[in-house]
Amino acid sequence: MFLLKDIHYKDILHIPYLEIKSGEITCLFGESGSGKSTLLRMLNNMITPDKGEIRYQNQSISEYIPMELRQEVVMLGQEPIVFDGTVRDNLLKGLEFSGKPEVDDSSLLALMNELKLHKKLDEDASKLSGGEKQRVAFGRVLLMGAKVYLLDEPTSALDEETENSIMDFVTTEIKKKKKTAIMVTHSKYVAKEYSDTIIYMNEIATTPNNKVGTGHE
Ligand SMILES: Nc1ncnc2c1ncn2[C@@H]1O[C@H](COP(=O)(O)OP(=O)(O)OP(=O)(O)O)[C@@H](O)[C@H]1O
Fold first, then answer.
1. Could you give the percent of the chain with pLDDT greater than 70?
2. What mean pLDDT do residues 156-180 have?
3. CA-CA distance, 206 to 113, in Å (whole number)?
4. In what way does this protein cross or attach to the membrane (predicted)?
5. pLDDT tens-digit profile of 37-55?
6. ipTM score for this prediction
7. Is the domain 2-204 a CATH 1.20.120.450 member?
């Protein structure tokens, strides 16, 4: 689904060659500062490499209209974005931005239940805890029905039990709907339990602190 060739970005990341498969859940694993978020942001053209080519579905990513690409390859960033308004407003925001029809309250409540978000739809989203905000942002992204989900530490603010329960739900949904996910995680357990492929940054990339082929663990 993605093919990267000889990518250079500042002195942060150099990736000689990388393929990411369609229909899989791929985890990016590596030490802090190894360029995981940078790589993720390249995949929906939020960052453009200085050199090299990224292909998405056999076409250079630079040939896509960025806004259209980002609706198909949707990003859930490390810091959850919360808009002014209620939990409902926040869940529906992605659909609103992409011009898609709204979803009724019962579907929103069913999604919230799966995300272990036991809050009212009319609740002020700014009053939610960090972990709750993260799940509202996750819900918003899931509702968008994208082809590819770029998930940057989507469960970092959650306790282990909630994290596992949400990962169970999300990965089942992604597989059922034949979507693709590329996820950054610091959890070895999450990477091993929920991914089809683990990409170790120290094996695919060179950074100032890092050489290709140094192996992992
Ligand atoms: N726009 C930028 N300009 C300059 N340096 C940047 C920029 N974005 C990221 N960096 C640097 O690039 C390196 C990689 O950052 P990145 O956020 O991709 O790492 P990461 O592996 O996701 O880290 P973490 O696990 O801590 O989130 C870091 O040293 C960071 O400071």
1. 95
2. 91
3. 42
4. Peripheral membrane protein
5. 999 999 999 999 999 999 9
6. 0.93
7. no
Mutate to test the pocket of ligand 1, among 8, 38, 182 (most ligand atoms within 8 A of CB): 38
Q: Per the structure block, which two tokens stand in for 71?
A: 């609706």
Neighbours of 29 (CB within 10 A): 25
User: Are 2 and 158 spatial neighbours (Cβ–Cβ below 8 Å)?
Assistant: no
Question: How many other CB atoms sit within 10 Å of the CB of residue 11?
Answer: 9
Q: From ligand 1's centre to the CA of 34, what distance in Å?
A: 7
Distance, CA 150 to ligand 1 centroid (Å)? 16
Supply φ then ψ for residue 19, to 5 degrees. Answer: -115, 140
For ligand 1, whether the C-beta of 77 sits within 6 Å is no
Nearest-CA residue for ligand 1 atom 28 is 33
pLDDT band of 214, cuts 50, 70, 90: very low
| Ligand 1 pocket residue status of 85, Cβ below 6 Å | no
Q: Domain map of the chain by residue range?
A: 2-204
pLDDT: is 217 or 191 the higher one?
191
